[in-house]
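Worked problem 6 (solution included).
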Amino acid sequence: MVDRGASALSLPDDWPAHPDPILALNRMGSFDWDLDNGLFHMDAQAHEVFDLRPNEYDGRPESLSVRVPPDEALRLDALVAQAIKDGSENYGAYFRLRCRDGRLRWTHTQGYIRRDGTGRPRRIVGIVRDATEELSELQSRAPQGGPERGRYDQGSVVQATTAALAHARTVQDVIDVLSYSDGVTHLGATSLVMGLVEAGRIRLIAEGPVDSRVPGTEVTRIDEAYPMSEVVRTLSPRFIESPEEFAAGYPVLWPHITDLGITSAAYLPLIVQARPIGAMGLLYGDRRGFSPEERDILVALGTSIAQSLQRAMFYEQEKDLATGLQQAMLPRTIPSVPGADVAVRYRSGSATGTLGRDIGGDWYDLIPLPGGRVGAVIGDVQGHDTHAAAVMGQLRIVLRAYAAEGHTPATVMARASVFLHELDTDRFATCLYAEADLATGVVQVVRAGHIDPLLRAVDGSCRRVSVEGGLPLGLSAEFGSLDYPVGTLELDPGHTLLLLTDGLVETPGADLDDGMQTLTGLVATGPPDVWKLADRLIEVAEERGGDDDVALLLLRRRGMDAPKTGGRLQQHVAPGDPEALTGARHMIRAAVRAWGAGDHADEIELVADELITNALMHTEGSAIVTLRVLNGAERRLRVEVEDSSSALPRRREAGESGVSGRGLLLVDLLADVWGVEARGGGKCVWCEFAVPDRAVRS
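Solution. The predicted structure is:
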C-alpha cells in the first residue's frame, strides 16, 4: 500500500527542531534523515511508534531492521529511491513492523524530500504513525461476504506475496516473506510449515506455530505417513477440511498437534520443472473446507513459492561455491614472522542478487624475505565474479614470485602491471605493497591506485599515511606509465601498519575521505591487540553491510626483548634496471633517516651511489647493496656493495675534462674509512661513517 501522491508536508525550515505539537497530540512521530551523513534522527514519539527505547537506536537507518522485516525494508528503500530519482517532493507508504512482543503492526510514513539548488537531495523530513486502527476501520467499512469478495482478497494476497518473493535471495528470505509480511497469514492461516527434499528425505525448515515441534519430524522419509510426504510422492495438493479428516488420514501426526486447535489445513507440493523440491503446509484454526476458487489460488501460490525457493537454493549453492573458491585463492596460512604480530581478515560482500557475483577480487598476502624483511600485499581486482577471483589468484602468485626474487618494491609493482596487461584481460587491479625491515623498522611502500595505509602508534593514535602512487595494475602498462614512486615510513616497536581494501571505508554516496577519517577514529579507540582489532573492524563492516568485499592485513612490530647488535638492510640491483637503482637510493635515504643519521644522508647516499654505479659499469651481473649499523666503541654506519668480479677497483686521477675516475676519490673524501674484501668469486667494496651514539636508533 503506497500513496506516493500524498500531499506535501507543510514544514518550517528548522523542522524538526521545533515540531508541531499537533504531531505529538495525534501520536505521530517525526524524523529527519540527513542524506549526506546517513543519520536518521527520530523524536521520542517516533521511538514509540517503532517500539524502540532510546538506547536501542544509534541513529542509523539500518538499525531499524530489528523492527522492519527484510521484505518491507526492501519495498520502502525502493520507494524512497524512486521518489528521489524521479524528482518527487514527497512520498508515503504503509508498511508493517514487528513489535517487541513479536506482533506485526501496520504503520504509515510520509516523507518530504528537500533538495539543494542543483536538485540534489540533502534531507528527508517526515512523520511516522501507527496505522492499525485506521486500516481496521477501512476494512470494517468494506463490503463483506460473498465468493467474489473472498476471491478478490485472496488474489490480492497472492499478488502481493509474489511481488515480495521477487526480492527474496535466500531460503530464509522466502520464509520471512511468507511469515512476516503480506503473506499467507492474510489468507487466514494460523501458521506455516515447510520442508525441502534432500536425498530422498524431507528436511523441515519452517516449523509452524510456536511450541508446536513434533518429535521425529525434523527429517522424514518420503514414504512415511505424513501430509508433506504424501504431496511430494503424489505431486498433488492435499486439502484437509476438518479435524476429523486430519485425525483419520494421519493418525501418527494428529495426536501431537491436537492441542493447537487446527480445524483445517492445505498441503502443497513445491514443484519446479516437474520435480518436487519441497512441500508447504498452511494450518488454519478458524475455518473448515476450501472452495474451488480458494484451492486454485493456493495452488497458484505454491507455484510462485516453489520458483522463489528454487532461485534461493541456486543462489545459496552459488554463494557457497563462490566462497569456497575465494578462500582457495587466498593464502591458506600466514607464515610466522619473527619480530612481528600479523592478523589478516577477509569478508565477502553481501549478496548482490545476481548468481555467481558473490566472489570478489580482494586479496592479501604476507611474503617472508631474506635479511629479516617481510613483504605485505593488499589488492583488489576490478569486478565481483569468478573471473575477478581467477585474475586475483594469478596476481597474488606473480607478486609473491617477483618479491621473492629480490626486486625492489617499485620493480615488483611495475612487473605485476605488465603481467596483468599481457594477461589479455579487461580487468585492472589496485594494489599496495609494503616491504618492511623489522630489524630497523624501515618500511618501503608502493601504491598502484590503492587507498593509503594507516599507522597506529603505541599510544593508540592513528593517522593516514599519504603515499604517492601510480596507476592501477594493468592500466599503467597499457598507458606506458610504469613509474611507481616509493614512499618510506618508520615502524617503531609497538606500531601497527594497517593495509585494507576500500570495502572497509567506502559506502554508496559517502566521501572516501570521510570514510577514512571514521576508520582512523575506530582504529584509535580499538583494542591494542592486532587480532582483536582486526575482529572489531570486520564486525563493523558486517554491521554496516554492503556489496563490496573487505580484505585487511595488520602488521605490528614487536618491541625487542634484548639489545640489538645493529640494523641491517639489503637490496639487489640488476644491470639495466634503473628502477632497482632508484629503489636502492630510496632504501639508503630511508634507512639513514630511520637510524637517526639524517645529517649524513646526502654524503652516504652519494658514496653508495658511486659504489653501485662502479659495480654495474665495470662488472657483469647484479650488485648487492647492504647497509648495517656496527655497535662498538664507536658506532658506525657501514655500506657494502658486492659484485661477482674479483678485479679490484683502482683509484685514478681524472683529467681536467674527464667525466670518470673520480668515484673512489669521492669515496675517500666523504667516508671515514673504506676498503675492499674478497667474497668467494667476487668482492665487496665497503665504507663506514662514524655516527654519534645519540643519533643511532635501531
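Discussion: The two ends are 70 Å apart (CA to CA).
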